[in-house]
From TrEMBL:
This is Serine hydrolase. Keywords: Hydrolase, Membrane, Signal, Transmembrane, Transmembrane helix. Gene3D superfamilies: DD-peptidase/beta-lactamase superfamily. Residues 33-48 have a biased composition (Low complexity).
Amino acid sequence: MILGFSFRMAVSAGVLCAAGLLAVVPAAADVSGRAEPSAPAGPRAAAPHPSLLHRPGTHVRPRAGVARLPEVSALSWLVADARSGEVLAAHNAHRRLPPASTLKTLFALTVLPALPSSVRHTVRAEELRGVGAGSSLVGVAEGRTYRIADLWRGVFLNSGNDAVHVLAELNGGWRATARRMQAEARSLGAHDTRVLSPDGYDTPGQVSSAFDLAIFGRVGLRNPDFARYCATVEARFPGGGGWSYAIHNTNRLLSGTRGVKPYRGLIGIKNGYTSKAGSTLVAAARRDGRTLVVTVMNPQQGGGAAVYEEARSLLDWGFRSAARVEPVGSLEAPRAPARPGATTLPAAAAAAVPEEPGSAWTEAGLIVGAVGLGAAVVVLVLRLPVRRSEGS
């Protein structure tokens, strides 16, 4: 069999087939794949660089007419919108300091989901070993039976380290609970926190930050049990033999004791004090549909009430100014960047996306088909027997 065209002609024909289709497709792809015009830029300023809050000093981005920040003596503080996670203002937000009992917010986040509140437990002597000297106690006694909910009220209201020890033992032990708390902090993007004593007792090397504590308080409020316990002002604690006694929340901004006026709209969260940490506080309040979370760590002036009064002034400023400042950061954990070539949809979800007529998927198919057609012609010709003519 003698073919009437040469090998070069066959290759050229295949290439021309592909080129012909490719010449048509780009115009259609340009029309159907064109992005919608972006919305005009709003009045908000550009988002701050993620590292801004890691820089020392005070950070706030006010618009015109915003009230000045109050005078605050704390070594570190932060004001954030609990719903969005936007940080409205902060001072030394990532400075690592001893957290005292505000670390119990992380303890609760970690352990609350693992222990049903209605379960009853009789305390054993070994569960109370290791409670630090000078710890705040709620009065947990060996041999006495408590509901898990009783112990949690002892943690949130009286900051009872004895109750923390019992709950930690029920959660797998003291060290295991510390490891789980550490893992929980990392999962939330709280990288300033190092957990060594789950109750917040002064331990060399144990630290957190205003930023991390605000994360713990904000996430905790999403748990109904956490939110209920941290907002409880007074409760009864079992004393044995059917007798009980009153316990009161030591967060004076909530309970209004010892010369501190209660803050209108306050919904918790947790206070703390040790000789090394000074006074610490994570507080949240809700007004007119907005919830703010504030952290204050170790005020340098004003005595024992200073942590509450400085938190009060920051909350007041936040409610007045929240709509008129640009955020200086976010409590949301940054998402890991997508790997090159990875789809942003799960495979099943991607397969379920309907193909629209004339979409970029259709054009891609035409392109592949055109190239495949050209290649097929070349392969076919190469496999055919060919008799060369004289002189070729």
